[in-house]
Design a protein that fits this description.
This protein has seven helices and five strands. A hairpin with a 2-residue loop joins β4 (107-113) and β5 (116-119). It is an alpha+beta fold. It has helices at residues 5-21, 35-48, 57-64, 91-101, 123-127, 132-160, 164-174, and strands at 24-29, 50-54, 80-85, 107-113, 116-119.
């Protein structure tokens, strides 16, 4: 179905708004993907914070102008599905990787992160990035480790000196007598 000028402007504005806030972009060829597969992918995308859209490449090129995804304008060729990660950088990578396993027709074509364009093989790298919760847990573990090491060192010194907590009550009992 052909879009009129105002509809095209709306599509460009919508994609440009998402591109301005997104963390990463994956463009994938989707020709041959069934309607049920696309529906399942769109549902999963909504749940994981991924903006998924099939847009004409000329409209997508206009939408990414002025954003960090502008580097991909020349690579936007063929029927492409655009997946923008809106909540965490690896979300689109995990989505495309998951659905590409069960569908050989879905082929990643390019990845853009931080104003740099990478080949399709970087979908694996992007998908392996930790989620926000995983990253926070890793940070908490790193921050807690020095305190745990200090506690272990103090305990080791106390054990080496004969268990300081056992000697203290014996001295307290000996003084009053």
């Amino acid at each position: 179905m052909a879009l009129n000028l105002s509809q095209k402007k709306d599509v460009v504005a919508e994609v440009a708004e998402v591109a301005a806030k997104a963390h990463s972009l994956i463009a994938a060829e989707y020709a041959g993907t069934t309607v049920s597969q696309m529906t399942a992918m769109r549902k999963k995308a909504r749940e994981t914070g991924v903006f998924l859209k099939v847009v004409k490449n000329t409209l997508a090129a206009r939408a990414v102008t002025g954003t960090e995804y502008e580097v991909a304008k020349d690579s936007l060729v063929g029927p492409l599905l655009y997946a923008f990660s809106t909540e965490e950088p690896g979300a689109a990578g995990r989505l495309i990787k998951e659905f590409a396993k069960g569908n050989d027709k879905l082929q990643p074509k390019l990845v853009v992160v931080g104003g740099q364009q990478y080949p399709a093989t970087h979908v694996e790298v992007l998908a392996s990035l930790p989620t926000r919760e995983q990253a926070l847990a890793m940070l908490a573990r790193v921050l807690a480790e020095p305190a745990a090491m200090f506690a272990r060192a103090v305990k080791a010194v106390a054990d080496k000196q004969g268990g300081g907590d056992v000697a203290a009550p014996a001295e307290a009992q000996a003084e009053p007598a």
